[in-house]
Design goal:
By secondary structure, the chain is of the alpha+beta class. The protein has one domain: Trna Endonuclease, Chain: A, domain 1 (3-Layer(aba) Sandwich). The chain contains four helices and eleven strands. The chain has a six-stranded mixed sheet with strand order 1-2-3-5-6-11. It is globular, with a radius of gyration of 15 Å. About 30% of the residues are buried.
């Protein structure tokens, strides 16, 4: 484990295996959104193209921890799923960051500023690198973001409100 994680607030999260890390990240997002007053309906099948519904919109939730290169790598991002938004949850040693991207922005891989009314400016998802090709999956990418390209979790309500009111 990297020195920056030792005795950190989120060290126990970092110690989890990847599967449980993603599951816990999704539950965190769902419970936080519900506490902020958004209607949340988890996808109980645990399969398919979306993880949860928030405010009537389908979300794919990806969770990553801060890596040795000081970035977050969100794996298995799909551009052809029938979702409205991609929720990227970044867990740093002593912070929780996120961004929510429109699925159209993810699919376009467009670079540039990401501006939402009433929110701090950010950047669009931009270019994604293809993951190792699986037998029948060509639509499989990894999205890499620095902490500066994500938002503080305290902005979540403002970001979702802005996106849902577009």
């Amino acid at each position: 484990m990297s020195e920056k994680w030792i005795n950190s607030t989120n060290m126990e999260f970092k110690n989890l295996r990847l599967g449980p890390r993603g599951d816990l990240g999704q539950v965190f997002v769902e419970e936080l959104c519900e506490s902020l007053g958004f209607n949340v309906v988890p996808n109980e099948t645990y399969t398919g193209e979306y993880d949860t519904t928030i405010g009537g919109h389908r979300f794919e939730v990806k969770t990553a921890t801060l890596g040795v290169s000081n970035g977050f790598q969100f794996n298995n991002v799909r551009t052809k799923y029938e979702v409205n938004f991609l929720f990227c949850l970044g867990i740093a040693p002593n912070d929780i960051l996120f961004n929510v991207y429109r699925e159209t922005d993810v699919a376009s891989m467009k670079e540039g500023p990401y501006i939402l009314d009433g929110c701090q400016d950010s950047v669009l998802p931009g270019h994604m690198t293809g993951m190792a090709k699986k037998a029948d999956v060509e639509d499989n990418f990894k999205l890499w973001k620095t902490g500066r390209e994500l938002r503080r979790i305290e902005e979540l309500q403002a970001v979702l409100t802005a996106l849902f009111n577009e």
